[in-house]
Amino acid sequence: MHQRRLGAGGPLVSAVGLGCMGMSQSYGPGNDEESVRTLNRALDLGVTFFDTAAVYGAGANERLIGPVVRRRRSEVFLATKCGILAGSSGTPYPGAGVSSALDGSPAEITRSCDASLQRLGIDVIDLFYLHRVDPKTPIEESVGAMARLVEAGKVRYLGLSEAGPGTLRRAHEVHPISALQSEYSLWFREPEDSVLVTCRSLGIAFVPFSPLGRGFLSGHVKKGATLAEGDLRRDLPRFQGDALDHNLRLVASLEAMAERKGCTASQLALAWLLSRGEDIVPIPGTKRQTYLEINAAATAVALSADDLALLNDTFPPDAAAGERYMPAMMAWVDRA
Ligand SMILES: NC(=O)c1ccc[n+]([C@@H]2O[C@H](COP(=O)([O-])OP(=O)(O)OC[C@H]3O[C@@H](n4cnc5c(N)ncnc54)[C@H](OP(=O)(O)O)[C@@H]3O)[C@@H](O)[C@H]2O)c1
């Protein structure tokens, strides 16, 4: 597995990571035994950059991956996140069946870090993200608290998620930010003209979440497919009505192109992201060994100039129809 650096002078991580969220929420029923096999298979293949969060499964995701991380601690680069409270009154947290609220206060960040360490059963978190910028707390205060966790030896590197360019700059002045984790894929290219430019000017790595468009870009979500009760995608505008029909036509082009190249649509989507720069480290999510193996092998898919031109023509920045989130979740995206 190739490696990429998280930020200027930062640590090396696998060029393709493993998103663990779907093992505990969002995309249908989980299967803990298969998830554990997937985590171990990932490490065997050199996919060592694991992504979780305190809020995933309201702590269940950290508890699930904890034993594997502990047993193979030296092999894993573990990222987790703070700042979204599960189980509080507020916005329904998508696909998790609980309400949630943002809290980026220093007290909550400190508490959340200790709780994550305990659930994971480890003594240091490799990369600690603020999951969403809390409009009630100046970013300097949130990142100040995170910096104190670095000083205390509980955290090694810091990151933000879904932060806008101005917020990222302010945060980076308080403490070096190693990575920004935000949505980025063939069907969501908005970061290219905004926050990705800022990341590059500051030497911050970009970690695309939902790099497969929440599975849509794999071609496995079909017209009329019944997504499980509670599956987040049932509520997302891109998976509904006319937008879904439009987006399925886009994915059909991707699948045709993948067939010509002898790879899968998901591999093509990941290879495109990897081609966008050495500072891009996607974290496709899966709970299955089969998908993990396919996604890891995307690093071997070489794209020619013609391939890239065709992908760019097929997926221009406004190619997909529908918003990527429902309004309540969109309100949590920082654009400052
Ligand atoms: N910072 C944030 O706010 C934020 C938001 C969303 C996600 N994330 C992180 O980013 C990670 C990845 O994003 P994501 O999970 O939302 O979306 P994703 O990686 O775009 O897609 C995940 C979905 O694709 C399916 N899939 C994966 N590989 C496949 C393949 N080769 N062929 C067919 N289907 C495949 C998975 O199926 P199965 O579930 O059946 O395996 C799952 O339903 C998450 O796990 C999480 O750690 C962060």
Can you tell me about this structure?
The protein is α/β, with parallel strands linked by helices. It has a single domain, classed as TIM Barrel, CATH 3.20.20.100. Helix content is 37%, strand content 16%. It has 11 helices and 11 strands. It has helices at residues 32-44, 60-71, 106-120, 139-151, 165-174, 195-202, 241-261, 265-275, 289-296, 305-314, 327-330; strands at 3-5, 12-14, 18-19, 49-51, 77-82, 84-93, 98-102, 125-130, 155-161, 179-183, 205-209. Helix 1 (32-44) packs parallel to helix 9, helix 3 (106-120) crosses helix 4 (139-151) and helix 5 (165-174) packs parallel to helix 6 (195-202). It binds NADP nicotinamide-adenine-dinucleotide phosphate. Residues 19-22, 27, 51, 131, 161-162, 181, 209-215, 218, 220, 266, 283-288, 291, 294-295 line the site of NADP nicotinamide-adenine-dinucleotide phosphate (NAP).
The helix-strand sequence is EEEHEHEEEHEHEHEHEHHHHH
Rounded mean pLDDT score: 94
Main β-sheet description? 7 strands, parallel
Structural class: alpha/beta
Q: What overall geometry do the principal axes of the alpha carbons give?
A: globular
Binned strand content:
15-25%
Amino-to-carboxy terminus distance: 36 Å
- Give the radius of gyration: 19 Å
Uncertain residue ranges = none
Please report the first level of CATH classification, the CATH class.
Alpha Beta
Q: Return the CATH architecture.
A: Alpha-Beta Barrel
